[in-house]
Amino acid sequence: MNNYRKVQEILQKLDIDAVLISNGNNMYYVSGFAGETGYVYISQKTHAVITDFRYTIQAEMEAEGYEIITIGNGGYEEAINDMLTSEQINRLGFEAEDMLYATYHKLKEGLNVKELVPLGDEITRLRRIKTPQELEYIKKAESIGDEVFREILDFIKPGMTELEIAAKIEYLLKMKGAQKSSFPAIVASGINSSMPHAVPSQKKIEKGDFLTLDFGCVYEGYCSDMTRTIVIGKASDQQKEVYNTVLKAQLAVLDFIKAGYQGKEIDKVARDIIYKAGYEGCFGHGLGHSVGLFIHENPRLSPTEEEVILAGMTETIEPGIYIKGFGGVRIEDLVVVTETGCENFTHSEKNLIEL
Ligand code: GLY
Ligand code: MN
Ligand code: MN
Prior knowledge:
Layout: H1 4-14, E1 18-21, H2 24-31, E2 39-43, E3 47-51, H3 56-62, E4 67-70, H4 75-87, E5 91-95, H5 101-110, E6 115-119, H6 122-125, H7 132-155, H8 162-175, E7 180-181, E8 186-189, E9 210-215, E10 217-219, E11 222-223, E12 226-231, H9 237-256, H10 263-279, E13 288-290, E14 297-301, E15 314-317, E16 320-323, E17 327-330, E18 333-337, E19 342-344
Parallel strand pairs: 1-5, 3-4, 5-6
Antiparallel strand pairs: 1-2, 2-3, 7-10, 8-9, 9-12, 10-11, 13-14, 15-18, 16-17, 18-19
Helix pairs in contact: 7-8, 9-10
Bound molecules: glycine (GLY) and manganese (II) ion (2 copies).
One manganese (II) ion binds next to loops.
Protein backbone atom coordinates (compact mmCIF):
# COMPACT_ATOMS: atom_id res chain seq x y z
CA MET A 1 0.00 0.00 0.00
CA ASN A 2 1.49 3.28 -0.99
CA ASN A 3 -0.98 6.07 -1.56
CA TYR A 4 1.05 9.15 -0.66
CA ARG A 5 0.48 10.74 -4.07
CA LYS A 6 -3.25 10.90 -3.38
CA VAL A 7 -2.45 12.81 -0.20
CA GLN A 8 -0.17 15.20 -2.09
CA GLU A 9 -3.11 16.03 -4.36
CA ILE A 10 -5.17 16.90 -1.28
CA LEU A 11 -2.37 19.15 0.02
CA GLN A 12 -2.31 20.99 -3.26
CA LYS A 13 -6.09 21.36 -3.34
CA LEU A 14 -6.20 22.73 0.22
CA ASP A 15 -3.06 24.81 -0.12
CA ILE A 16 -1.35 23.08 2.77
CA ASP A 17 2.42 22.51 2.86
CA ALA A 18 2.39 19.21 4.72
CA VAL A 19 0.15 16.96 6.78
CA LEU A 20 0.58 14.85 9.88
CA ILE A 21 -1.60 11.77 9.58
CA SER A 22 -2.43 10.27 12.96
CA ASN A 23 -5.39 7.98 12.26
CA GLY A 24 -3.98 4.44 12.33
CA ASN A 25 -6.10 3.20 9.43
CA ASN A 26 -5.14 6.20 7.33
CA MET A 27 -1.46 5.73 8.18
CA TYR A 28 -1.77 2.16 6.97
CA TYR A 29 -3.69 3.18 3.85
CA VAL A 30 -1.17 5.73 2.71
CA SER A 31 2.06 4.04 3.80
CA GLY A 32 1.49 0.35 4.60
CA PHE A 33 2.79 0.93 8.15
CA ALA A 34 0.52 -0.97 10.52
CA GLY A 35 2.22 0.01 13.80
CA GLU A 36 0.10 1.46 16.52
CA THR A 37 2.02 4.60 17.34
CA GLY A 38 3.38 7.44 15.27
CA TYR A 39 2.57 9.77 12.42
CA VAL A 40 2.84 9.67 8.69
CA TYR A 41 4.22 12.99 7.47
CA ILE A 42 3.62 13.95 3.86
CA SER A 43 4.71 17.07 1.98
CA GLN A 44 5.32 17.53 -1.73
CA LYS A 45 8.97 16.59 -1.20
CA THR A 46 8.86 14.02 1.57
CA HIS A 47 6.87 11.07 2.78
CA ALA A 48 7.97 9.73 6.13
CA VAL A 49 6.87 7.56 9.01
CA ILE A 50 7.73 9.07 12.38
CA THR A 51 7.58 6.53 15.15
CA ASP A 52 9.44 5.22 18.20
CA PHE A 53 12.06 2.50 18.58
CA ARG A 54 9.48 -0.25 19.15
CA TYR A 55 8.21 0.15 15.59
CA THR A 56 11.31 1.15 13.60
CA ILE A 57 12.01 -2.24 12.04
CA GLN A 58 8.34 -2.83 11.34
CA ALA A 59 8.05 0.55 9.62
CA GLU A 60 11.13 -0.18 7.50
CA MET A 61 9.57 -3.46 6.44
CA GLU A 62 6.09 -2.14 5.76
CA ALA A 63 6.35 1.43 4.50
CA GLU A 64 8.02 0.90 1.17
CA GLY A 65 9.81 3.98 -0.18
CA TYR A 66 9.15 5.98 2.99
CA GLU A 67 11.76 7.71 5.07
CA ILE A 68 11.63 6.20 8.58
CA ILE A 69 12.33 8.57 11.46
CA THR A 70 12.76 7.24 14.99
CA ILE A 71 12.09 9.80 17.70
CA GLY A 72 14.74 10.48 20.34
CA ASN A 73 14.52 11.90 23.84
CA GLY A 74 13.04 15.10 22.41
CA GLY A 75 9.94 13.12 21.47
CA TYR A 76 7.65 13.73 18.52
CA GLU A 77 7.89 17.52 18.80
CA GLU A 78 11.63 17.52 18.17
CA ALA A 79 11.46 15.04 15.28
CA ILE A 80 8.59 16.89 13.61
CA ASN A 81 10.23 20.28 14.19
CA ASP A 82 13.41 19.13 12.46
CA MET A 83 11.31 18.25 9.45
CA LEU A 84 9.25 21.46 9.52
CA THR A 85 12.35 23.62 9.74
CA SER A 86 14.26 21.86 7.01
CA GLU A 87 11.26 22.00 4.68
CA GLN A 88 10.16 25.52 5.71
CA ILE A 89 6.60 24.44 6.39
CA ASN A 90 4.10 27.21 7.17
CA ARG A 91 0.76 25.48 7.03
CA LEU A 92 0.66 22.01 8.57
CA GLY A 93 -2.53 19.98 8.30
CA PHE A 94 -3.65 17.50 10.97
CA GLU A 95 -6.56 15.12 11.30
CA ALA A 96 -8.91 17.00 13.58
CA GLU A 97 -11.36 14.09 13.65
CA ASP A 98 -8.72 11.83 15.06
CA MET A 99 -6.35 13.80 17.24
CA LEU A 100 -6.85 14.03 20.98
CA TYR A 101 -7.43 17.56 22.25
CA ALA A 102 -4.47 17.14 24.61
CA THR A 103 -2.15 16.07 21.78
CA TYR A 104 -3.28 19.00 19.68
CA HIS A 105 -2.37 21.41 22.46
CA LYS A 106 1.00 19.77 22.93
CA LEU A 107 1.75 20.11 19.22
CA LYS A 108 0.41 23.65 19.09
CA GLU A 109 2.76 24.68 21.90
CA GLY A 110 5.72 22.67 20.73
CA LEU A 111 5.80 22.94 16.94
CA ASN A 112 7.56 25.66 14.99
CA VAL A 113 4.83 26.23 12.49
CA LYS A 114 2.72 29.28 11.66
CA GLU A 115 -0.56 27.48 11.24
CA LEU A 116 -1.97 24.12 12.27
CA VAL A 117 -4.80 23.51 9.82
CA PRO A 118 -7.59 21.12 10.88
CA LEU A 119 -8.55 18.75 8.09
CA GLY A 120 -12.00 17.19 7.89
CA ASP A 121 -12.30 13.66 6.61
CA GLU A 122 -10.29 14.35 3.42
CA ILE A 123 -7.79 11.55 4.03
CA THR A 124 -10.38 9.05 5.27
CA ARG A 125 -12.49 9.76 2.18
CA LEU A 126 -9.75 8.29 0.01
CA ARG A 127 -10.74 4.91 1.40
CA ARG A 128 -14.38 4.99 0.28
CA ILE A 129 -14.11 3.20 -3.05
CA LYS A 130 -12.29 -0.08 -2.69
CA THR A 131 -9.74 -1.41 -5.17
CA PRO A 132 -10.09 -4.96 -6.52
CA GLN A 133 -7.30 -6.02 -4.13
CA GLU A 134 -9.06 -4.51 -1.13
CA LEU A 135 -12.30 -6.21 -2.17
CA GLU A 136 -10.50 -9.56 -2.33
CA TYR A 137 -9.33 -9.12 1.27
CA ILE A 138 -12.81 -8.14 2.46
CA LYS A 139 -14.33 -11.07 0.59
CA LYS A 140 -11.84 -13.46 2.15
CA ALA A 141 -12.55 -12.03 5.62
CA GLU A 142 -16.28 -12.52 5.05
CA SER A 143 -15.76 -16.08 3.81
CA ILE A 144 -13.94 -16.88 7.06
CA GLY A 145 -17.09 -15.65 8.84
CA ASP A 146 -19.25 -17.95 6.72
CA GLU A 147 -17.08 -20.94 7.65
CA VAL A 148 -17.25 -20.07 11.31
CA PHE A 149 -21.04 -19.76 11.18
CA ARG A 150 -21.30 -23.27 9.71
CA GLU A 151 -19.10 -24.71 12.44
CA ILE A 152 -20.61 -22.83 15.33
CA LEU A 153 -24.02 -24.34 14.56
CA ASP A 154 -22.62 -27.78 15.51
CA PHE A 155 -21.14 -26.34 18.69
CA ILE A 156 -24.14 -24.49 20.13
CA LYS A 157 -26.17 -26.44 22.69
CA PRO A 158 -28.78 -25.34 25.25
CA GLY A 159 -27.09 -24.70 28.60
CA MET A 160 -24.02 -22.99 27.12
CA THR A 161 -23.44 -19.38 28.01
CA GLU A 162 -23.35 -16.53 25.51
CA LEU A 163 -19.73 -15.94 26.54
CA GLU A 164 -18.72 -19.50 25.71
CA ILE A 165 -20.19 -19.15 22.23
CA ALA A 166 -18.50 -15.76 21.71
CA ALA A 167 -15.15 -17.24 22.78
CA LYS A 168 -15.56 -20.13 20.36
CA ILE A 169 -16.43 -17.78 17.49
CA GLU A 170 -13.35 -15.65 18.11
CA TYR A 171 -11.14 -18.74 18.43
CA LEU A 172 -12.44 -20.20 15.17
CA LEU A 173 -11.95 -16.92 13.29
CA LYS A 174 -8.26 -16.95 14.19
CA MET A 175 -7.84 -20.66 13.53
CA LYS A 176 -9.15 -20.05 10.02
CA GLY A 177 -6.59 -17.36 9.25
CA ALA A 178 -8.01 -14.11 10.63
CA GLN A 179 -5.64 -11.67 12.34
CA LYS A 180 -8.27 -10.81 14.92
CA SER A 181 -11.96 -10.10 15.37
CA SER A 182 -13.12 -6.89 13.68
CA PHE A 183 -15.13 -6.13 16.86
CA PRO A 184 -16.02 -8.16 19.96
CA ALA A 185 -18.49 -10.83 18.80
CA ILE A 186 -22.10 -10.19 19.75
CA VAL A 187 -23.91 -13.25 21.06
CA ALA A 188 -27.35 -12.31 22.31
CA SER A 189 -29.97 -14.83 23.38
CA GLY A 190 -33.59 -14.64 24.40
CA ILE A 191 -34.62 -11.20 25.61
CA ASN A 192 -31.00 -10.04 25.30
CA SER A 193 -31.44 -10.19 21.53
CA SER A 194 -33.74 -7.16 21.80
CA MET A 195 -30.57 -5.10 22.38
CA PRO A 196 -28.90 -4.56 18.97
CA HIS A 197 -25.43 -4.37 20.49
CA ALA A 198 -25.87 -6.66 23.47
CA VAL A 199 -22.67 -7.69 25.24
CA PRO A 200 -22.25 -11.48 25.65
CA SER A 201 -23.05 -12.51 29.21
CA GLN A 202 -23.18 -15.53 31.51
CA LYS A 203 -26.78 -16.07 30.42
CA LYS A 204 -27.35 -19.66 29.35
CA ILE A 205 -28.92 -20.46 26.00
CA GLU A 206 -32.39 -21.92 26.46
CA LYS A 207 -34.92 -23.68 24.25
CA GLY A 208 -37.18 -21.14 22.60
CA ASP A 209 -34.54 -18.39 22.54
CA PHE A 210 -33.74 -16.26 19.59
CA LEU A 211 -29.93 -16.30 19.29
CA THR A 212 -28.27 -13.45 17.41
CA LEU A 213 -24.66 -13.95 16.32
CA ASP A 214 -22.96 -10.84 14.93
CA PHE A 215 -19.27 -11.11 14.26
CA GLY A 216 -16.46 -10.45 11.83
CA CYS A 217 -12.74 -10.64 11.44
CA VAL A 218 -9.74 -8.85 10.01
CA TYR A 219 -7.79 -10.29 7.08
CA GLU A 220 -4.78 -8.40 5.65
CA GLY A 221 -6.03 -5.39 7.59
CA TYR A 222 -9.56 -5.51 6.16
CA CYS A 223 -12.73 -6.17 8.14
CA SER A 224 -15.75 -8.35 7.67
CA ASP A 225 -19.14 -8.21 9.36
CA MET A 226 -22.13 -10.57 9.35
CA THR A 227 -25.14 -11.41 11.47
CA ARG A 228 -27.43 -14.38 11.62
CA THR A 229 -30.28 -14.96 14.06
CA ILE A 230 -31.44 -18.50 14.77
CA VAL A 231 -33.97 -20.07 17.14
CA ILE A 232 -32.98 -22.68 19.70
CA GLY A 233 -35.58 -25.43 19.27
CA LYS A 234 -38.89 -24.78 17.54
CA ALA A 235 -39.75 -21.21 16.60
CA SER A 236 -43.08 -19.77 17.76
CA ASP A 237 -45.45 -18.21 15.25
CA GLN A 238 -44.50 -14.74 16.48
CA GLN A 239 -40.80 -15.51 16.14
CA LYS A 240 -41.39 -16.71 12.59
CA GLU A 241 -43.36 -13.58 11.78
CA VAL A 242 -40.69 -11.24 13.08
CA TYR A 243 -37.93 -13.22 11.40
CA ASN A 244 -39.61 -13.37 8.04
CA THR A 245 -40.35 -9.65 8.09
CA VAL A 246 -36.66 -8.87 8.61
CA LEU A 247 -35.71 -11.36 5.92
CA LYS A 248 -38.20 -9.86 3.47
CA ALA A 249 -36.75 -6.39 4.12
CA GLN A 250 -33.19 -7.63 3.69
CA LEU A 251 -33.93 -9.47 0.44
CA ALA A 252 -35.77 -6.45 -0.95
CA VAL A 253 -32.71 -4.27 -0.39
CA LEU A 254 -30.38 -6.84 -1.97
CA ASP A 255 -32.64 -6.78 -4.98
CA PHE A 256 -32.88 -2.97 -5.08
CA ILE A 257 -29.37 -1.77 -4.33
CA LYS A 258 -27.07 -0.50 -7.07
CA ALA A 259 -24.80 2.49 -7.64
CA GLY A 260 -26.51 5.87 -7.90
CA TYR A 261 -28.95 5.89 -5.00
CA GLN A 262 -28.52 8.04 -1.91
CA GLY A 263 -27.91 6.06 1.27
CA LYS A 264 -31.30 7.16 2.62
CA GLU A 265 -33.14 5.87 -0.46
CA ILE A 266 -31.70 2.41 0.10
CA ASP A 267 -32.45 2.52 3.83
CA LYS A 268 -36.08 3.41 3.05
CA VAL A 269 -36.66 0.16 1.13
CA ALA A 270 -36.12 -1.91 4.28
CA ARG A 271 -37.70 0.60 6.65
CA ASP A 272 -40.95 0.79 4.67
CA ILE A 273 -41.37 -2.98 4.74
CA ILE A 274 -40.67 -3.22 8.47
CA TYR A 275 -42.88 -0.27 9.40
CA LYS A 276 -45.76 -1.39 7.18
CA ALA A 277 -45.66 -4.80 8.87
CA GLY A 278 -46.43 -3.00 12.14
CA TYR A 279 -42.94 -2.70 13.61
CA GLU A 280 -42.47 1.07 13.55
CA GLY A 281 -40.25 1.96 16.49
CA CYS A 282 -38.59 -1.48 16.49
CA PHE A 283 -35.85 -0.71 13.92
CA GLY A 284 -33.95 2.13 15.54
CA HIS A 285 -30.61 1.92 13.77
CA GLY A 286 -29.49 2.53 10.21
CA LEU A 287 -29.73 -0.18 7.57
CA GLY A 288 -26.00 -0.44 7.08
CA HIS A 289 -22.53 1.00 6.86
CA SER A 290 -19.46 0.73 4.74
CA VAL A 291 -16.66 -1.62 5.81
CA GLY A 292 -12.95 -1.50 5.08
CA LEU A 293 -9.89 -1.05 7.24
CA PHE A 294 -12.35 0.04 9.92
CA ILE A 295 -15.53 -1.81 10.79
CA HIS A 296 -17.89 1.17 10.55
CA GLU A 297 -17.01 3.45 7.65
CA ASN A 298 -18.93 6.04 5.67
CA PRO A 299 -21.09 6.36 3.73
CA ARG A 300 -23.93 4.82 5.69
CA LEU A 301 -27.27 3.46 4.66
CA SER A 302 -29.48 5.41 7.05
CA PRO A 303 -32.54 7.67 7.04
CA THR A 304 -30.25 10.74 7.02
CA GLU A 305 -27.49 9.67 4.60
CA GLU A 306 -27.58 11.98 1.58
CA GLU A 307 -24.38 10.70 0.00
CA VAL A 308 -24.75 8.77 -3.23
CA ILE A 309 -23.55 5.19 -3.06
CA LEU A 310 -21.06 4.42 -5.84
CA ALA A 311 -19.71 1.28 -7.48
CA GLY A 312 -16.84 -0.17 -5.47
CA MET A 313 -18.26 0.88 -2.12
CA THR A 314 -18.92 -1.89 0.38
CA GLU A 315 -22.08 -1.80 2.46
CA THR A 316 -23.63 -4.00 5.10
CA ILE A 317 -27.32 -4.66 4.76
CA GLU A 318 -28.55 -5.33 8.25
CA PRO A 319 -32.19 -4.59 8.99
CA GLY A 320 -33.53 -5.68 12.36
CA ILE A 321 -36.60 -5.76 14.56
CA TYR A 322 -36.09 -5.46 18.32
CA ILE A 323 -38.93 -5.91 20.78
CA LYS A 324 -38.27 -5.26 24.46
CA GLY A 325 -39.14 -8.25 26.63
CA PHE A 326 -39.50 -10.52 23.60
CA GLY A 327 -36.28 -10.52 21.63
CA GLY A 328 -34.88 -9.38 18.34
CA VAL A 329 -33.75 -10.41 14.92
CA ARG A 330 -31.03 -8.99 12.70
CA ILE A 331 -29.79 -10.41 9.41
CA GLU A 332 -26.62 -8.86 8.02
CA ASP A 333 -24.80 -9.43 4.76
CA LEU A 334 -21.83 -7.53 3.35
CA VAL A 335 -21.89 -6.54 -0.31
CA VAL A 336 -19.90 -4.54 -2.80
CA VAL A 337 -22.10 -2.21 -4.81
CA THR A 338 -21.82 -2.34 -8.60
CA GLU A 339 -23.31 -0.29 -11.44
CA THR A 340 -26.04 -2.84 -11.97
CA GLY A 341 -26.59 -4.28 -8.49
CA CYS A 342 -24.27 -5.79 -5.94
CA GLU A 343 -22.06 -8.77 -5.26
CA ASN A 344 -22.92 -10.38 -1.97
CA PHE A 345 -19.85 -11.58 -0.06
CA THR A 346 -21.95 -13.40 2.58
CA HIS A 347 -23.24 -16.86 1.75
CA SER A 348 -24.52 -18.23 5.06
CA GLU A 349 -28.03 -19.67 5.20
CA LYS A 350 -30.68 -17.12 6.00
CA ASN A 351 -33.91 -19.05 5.98
CA LEU A 352 -34.81 -19.45 9.63
CA ILE A 353 -32.66 -22.10 11.29
CA GLU A 354 -34.28 -23.97 14.20
CA LEU A 355 -31.44 -25.62 16.04
N1 GLY B 1 -21.27 -5.25 14.67
C1 GLY B 1 -21.95 -4.12 14.55
C2 GLY B 1 -22.56 -3.98 13.25
O1 GLY B 1 -23.04 -4.91 12.67
O2 GLY B 1 -22.54 -2.92 12.72
MN1 MN C 1 -22.37 -6.82 12.43
MN1 MN D 1 -22.57 -4.09 10.66
